Amino acid sequence: MSKAPANIVDRPLSKGKNEINISSFAFLFSEMIQYCQDRIKAGHELEKKLSDMGYSIGPRLLELLCVREKNSKRETKLLGILSFIHTTVWKSLFGKPADSLEKSTEADDEYMISDNNMVVNKFISLPKHLSSLNCAAFVAGIIEGILCSAEFPARVTAHNVAVEGKRFPKTVILIKFNPEVIERNA
Amino acid sequence: MTINSIYILNKAGTLIYQNDFGNTEKLSHNSYIRLGSTFHSLHAIASNLSPVSGSSSGIEVIETEAFKLQCFQTHTGIKFYVIADPNHQQLEELLHGVYELYTDYVLKNPFYEIEMQIRCDLFDYKLLRLLGVRE
Amino acid sequence: MSKKYDKLGNDVFNKVEKINSELFTLTYGALVTQLIKDYEDIEQVNIKLEQMGYNIGIRLIEEFLAKSGIGRCSDFIETAEVIAKVGFKMFLGINAHVGDWDADRKEFHLTIEDNPLIDFVELPEQYKHKLYYSNILCGVIRGALEMVQMKVKCTFVKCTLSDDTTSEIKVVLEEVLSDMIPVGYD
Description:
The complex is a heterotrimer. By secondary structure, chain A is an alpha+beta fold. Chain A has helices spanning 22-38, 45-55, 58-68, 78-94, 137-149, 179-185; strands at 19-21, 100-103, 110-115, 154-161, 170-177. Chain A is built from 6 helices and 5 strands; from the N terminus they run E-H-H-H-H-E-E-H-E-E-H. Chain A has a 4-stranded antiparallel beta sheet. Chain A is globular, with a radius of gyration of 18 Å. Chain B is of the alpha+beta class. Chain B contains 3 helices and 5 strands, in the order ββαβββαα. Chain B has helices at residues 29-48, 91-106, 121-134, and strands at residues 3-9, 15-20, 61-63, 68-73, 79-84. Chain B has a 5-stranded antiparallel beta sheet with strand order 2-1-5-4-3. Chain C has a single domain, classed as 2-Layer Sandwich (Muramoyl-pentapeptide Carboxypeptidase, domain 2), CATH 3.30.1380. Chain C has helices at residues 2-15, 21-39, 42-68, 76-92, 136-147, and strands at 18-20, 96-99, 107-112, 150-158, 167-176. In chain C, strands 2-3-5-4 form a 4-stranded antiparallel beta sheet, covered by helices on one side. In chain C, strand 4 (150-158) and strand 5 form a beta hairpin. Chains A and C meet through strand 1, helix 1, helix 3 and helix 4 of A and strand 1, helix 2, helix 3 and helix 4 of C. Strand 1 (19-21) of chain A pairs antiparallel with strand 1 of chain C, so a sheet runs across the interface. Chain B: It is found in: Endoplasmic reticulum; Golgi apparatus, cis-Golgi network; Golgi apparatus. Chain B: Keywords: Endoplasmic reticulum, ER-Golgi transport, Golgi apparatus, Transport.
């Protein structure tokens, strides 16, 4: 049995290929949601709380993925960072790219990433009084954290959107960039 | 093969889930609760009837001309039972399938309070699919 | 006995749906940092992590039983092997080892290797030997065993994050809750 070097920075960076049972994540996430619920005063604060928890992950994940992708350079283009999130980030977190990336037809500063089977919601049924909640607010928080630390400040939220012919809605992550980002990119 | 009803009782013998399928006649909510706790008691009595102590697992199957009831009790004391056509041959597998759905779509749902009434859309949906495949 | 359960653990892990462990690792990290913020006192954080683990354990045991097909263990020695070889493998994809039994066979140590919870983690000096970062695992074991009528106490006795050479959980069987064994259960 080889001993890993004691100091974490002396160890090689993990390749990110280890897998665990999806249930372990689901149980942890469920417990985290219950913890958040216990610490808020009103139902609508739950999304904010989940988003805040995700936010702290964003910068760490961005750094990790940039170091791991050998020839990655810092994204400076709006579409570049969006496609990085839609593909690289999604693959590393959920094992597949998101289903779509679209620009909003209603607002110039809004983009939408859709996922028809959001992993974090796989086992979650919403109670009647919280039917508009989407626990992927946690993922939205991660994305917001990534965007802000990559100098694309934005407000990111998660929504349930009904799909024709499907019993359960899909998740749409709505990204609304700050005005300076849009101006810079114009 | 018709499946009429599925019941789930918690450790204390309280009904936490019940659903009827097909043309099964519906009863009042209280009747289901009463049926559940009656079954729980019968199961306990049956297990004490064994002449050799500790050797009976309680009621596993009740067979009649009109229906068959199959029960599965987990190591933790939850009971799943199904009422079906008397000729149905795969009720044990079916109950195990329901148990697995329970572990996924009930117990991993942050809005489900343990031991309480099950109200989870995804569980209902997956259960119907499970029955659909086997019917 | 150990070999048989090694194989079962592998078989079950191969069968379950899996995801990349990093989502799990990062989520747990976000939870621990949030608890440190919310509680300030590190001992309270250890307690809360254990409680959250307990809540997970009382639910997780059902999946463990349903998907591993394991029946009642004949004694605590067998229980220990099942936890180490099937439980840890099935949920985290890792190996744990049982050792250091006491004379009465009511107490053992569980040594954990490659714990995915601590990937990327380095404890600041002031938290070493104070914060039991993976304390949630102690709670999971306690909760799961209580549901199969064993009252145990679990504590971290060594942790690589606090510069120990291994990570070890001590498990002590306090009582078998015979009254709680389901009626009609052989």
